[in-house]
Design brief:
43% of the residues lie in helices and 16% in strands. By secondary structure, the protein is an alpha/beta fold. The protein folds into two domains: 4-171 and 359-374, 3-Layer(aba) Sandwich (Rossmann fold); 182-357, Glycogen Phosphorylase B (Rossmann fold), CATH 3.40.50.2000. The strands form three sheets. A seven-stranded parallel sheet has the order 5-3-1-6-7-8-9, with helices on both faces. Strands 12-11-10-13-14-15 form a six-stranded parallel sheet, with helices on both faces. Strands 2-4 form a two-stranded parallel ribbon. Helix 8 links the parallel strand 11 and strand 12 (258-262). Helix 1 packs across helix 14, helix 6 crosses helix 9 (267-273) and helix 10 packs across helix 13 (349-357). The chain is globular.
Length: 375
């Protein structure tokens, strides 16, 4: 059996691309493969598996800008050794220039971030990310995309021929994201100190405006001005703008209607407490938090352009936001949801069952088969 090399920033079960990379590595190790991980951080459960070799890379000051070049050099160093043994290799985007398989979780070329702080540093980081991403994807033998949205962006923005593009959707862990029971929901709401009022949730980083929290905040201001709006909002996520939004909420006197929870590792439990998730992202290659909410049976209002929206059937079209820049549209979506909370919950049950049926092992198996087929 040929060895495998995976180059990724983090291998953790905490969410986003990290959990996807973690799932692929676990699948390979469980199959008996020799797996080499070049990374800044890997979860202990993975490192302890037989056959897994960790090549840990320093990330100075926890900075992507400083750690990225170190990760790339370490990945190339390991590849020079393992290529002699005809190893398989998979990297993420522009993190390492190995002309083998490239797994795209997020395409820098598809979105120009809106930043209010640290602009000079952010511009420098973005310029480097764009160049490394372009070179790595154009050289890759096969580019694995997490949605049709991502595949189209890679083809149109970077000129990669469609014959080298494969769409492989994420999976899930149905044991962590099963349908919410009534008892679990009661317990989860109690843990959050929630009242009997409907609970709206937002899960996403607050470091820039990509996830669209500013659109949600504007919509929330309008809703809270209405005498008939009785829902509260919980916000999961941290970043440079978190304090800014907390201050804005206090100034607008709606801070009692918004609970900023910061970064959390208990997202499955928080989802259990929600009546709806809102994700008005300006750019979203996929949208794993939406996927996980639907798995739990929680309706999710999401941008129609997000990769995860490709799973939504026509019957759930009322949950799709056509213009994530428009707070008025989001207000209308939330008001429609509020008039029929239980109806929306029942309408996502079928999609939730379909998403739970595709596990991380199914995803990993598809990736392995793709890489072996195109080697």
């Amino acid at each position: 059996m040929k060895p495998w090399l995976i180059v990724a920033g983090d291998f953790t079960p905490l969410g986003g691309m990290d959990v996807a990379n973690h799932a692929l590595a676990r699948h390979l190790a469980a199959s008996g493969a020799e797996v080499h991980l070049v990374t800044h951080r890997a979860w202990p459960d993975l490192v302890e598996m037989p056959g897994v070799s960790l090549h840990e890379v320093w990330r100075p000051l926890r900075s992507h800008l400083l750690g990225g070049p170190l990760l790339a050099r370490a990945g190339l160093r390991e590849w020079r050794q393992l290529s002699r043994r005809h190893a398989f290799a998979i990297v993420n985007g522009g993190n390492c220039r190995i002309p083998q398989a490239n797994w795209v979780h997020y395409l820098h070329a598809a979105y120009e971030p809106v930043l209010v702080r640290r602009r000079t540093k952010a511009r420098l980081a973005r310029r480097g990310d764009l160049l490394r991403e372009r070179d790595a994807l154009r050289e890759a033998r096969v580019v694995i995309c997490n949605s049709r949205r991502t595949r189209n962006d890679v083809a149109e923005r970077l000129g990669v021929h469609e014959s080298r593009l494969e769409v492989i959707y994420y999976g899930c862990d149905p044991s962590r994201f099963p349908p919410v029971t009534s008892d679990e929901r009661t317990s989860a709401r109690g843990t959050l100190g929630a009242s009997d009022r409907p609970l709206v949730g937002f899960v996403g980083a607050l470091g820039d405006r990509r996830k669209g929290f500013d659109t949600l905040f504007a919509a929330w201001l309008s809703l809270c001005a209405r005498s008939d709006w009785d829902a509260d909002l919980v916000v999961v996520g941290s970043g440079a703008e978190r304090r800014f939004w907390q201050d804005r909420a206090r100034e607008a006197r709606i801070d009692r209607r918004i609970n900023f929870l910061g970064f959390r590792t208990d997202v499955p439990a928080i989802l259990a407490a929600l009546d709806v998730l809102v994700h008005p992202a300006r750019y979203e290659a996929y949208g794993l938090s939406v996927h996980e909410a639907i798995c739990r049976g929680v309706p999710a209002i999401v941008s129609a352009s997000a990769g995860v929206a490709e799973h939504y059937p026509a019957a759930l079209g009322g949950l799709l936001i056509q213009d994530p820049e428009n707070p008025r549209e989001l207000v209308d979506r939330l008001l429609a949801w509020r008039k029929d909370i239980e109806g929306h919950r029942s309408r996502v049950e079928k999609l939730g069952a379909q998403l739970r049926a595709r596990t991380w092992d199914h995803m990993a198996g598809d990736i392995v088969a793709c890489i072996e087929r195109t080697a």
